[in-house]
Amino acid sequence: MKRFFLISGLAALLLGTGSCVKDDIFDGPASISNVSITPAAPQSSESPAVTAKVMDLKGVVSVTLYYRTAAGGSFLTVDMTLSGTDFIYSGNIPALPKDTKVDYYIEVKNKGGFTTVYPASAPAQLATYTVGASTLIKLHINEALADGTKDVSDPDWVEVYNESEIPVDLSGYYFYDEGIRTSNGTKAKRVINAGTVIPAKGFLVFKTEYTGGEYSVEFGLSTSGDAVYLENPSGVLVASLDFLTINLSGKKSYGRQPDGSSNLVIFTTPTRGSTNN
Q: Most buried residue among 157, 216, 217, 242 by CB atoms closer than 10 A?
């Protein structure tokens, strides 16, 4: 009988000791590993995804991505969510303007009341990236004047605005008005000269007539209503401005305000080759 009690007591002691060891193993902070950002060099048109592998045996309460766009500024937050398997959490930082320097870090809170951060000394030390130029091409016919002098001194003109963050080569693009569009091919479209480049966030003005022989295709714009179009070399329409029902007599122009927007207004003071803002 004594031997039975001795064995039972020893078993209880061992079980009790195992339970304490188990609690010690689970009671600690989560781990953060395999942190990455995709794309590694985000462009201004991209919302990069930050991912991390988060391991915690007791359970995660929250995984939060902190980011800011100015040194010493306040952090904004994004909730990172579990995506698929392998304990991978993900969150997206919004698209931001070119040359913006972004600081970010990850914070994990678990059910044990522990907090873990990445980088390990965040927010004193932070992960960073700088937003690069987008390669997306965004062109707009930004303004048009149809009541020129009908001679070389101040002919009708059309202004193109490049909203892109890179220069755009307009070599071989097609430029034409409503009369050419509706001619069913009997009137040729103007082909823009090789080497014609519009700078990033810049403006380029085309005279529609009296071009001094620079273009064989010339066309006057109608003050009682017209439209102008820009196609890429593949024949895809990339920009247009419709003023078919707008009377532009009296040296008024018609265009977008602010530049590149869908808000169309009549300008009593044209802003040829400069911002409409």
A: 157
Upstream peptide bond of 233 is cis (omega within 30 degrees of 0): no
Indicate the SS3 state at residue 16: helix
**pLDDT (tens digit per residue) in 4-46:** 444 444 444 444 444 444 445 557 999 999 999 999 999 999 9
In a domain, 113, yes or no: yes
Q: What is the pLDDT of residues 76-116, one digit of tens each?
A: 999 999 987 789 999 999 999 999 999 999 999 999 999 99
**CATH number assigned to the domain comprising residue 41:** 2.60.40.10
Tell me how far apart the terminal alpha carbons of the chain are, to the nearest angstrom. Answer: 98
Residues 146 and 246 in one domain: yes
* DSSP class per residue in 217-234: ---PPPTT-EEEEEE-TT
Q: What's the chain's Rg over C-alpha atoms? A: 32
Burial 110-145 (b: 16+ CB within 10 A, else e): beeeeebbbeeebeeebbebebbebeeeebbbbbbb
**Residue 172, exposed/middle/buried by CB under 10 A (0-12, 13-18, 19+)?**
middle
Say if 230 falls within a structural domain. Answer: yes
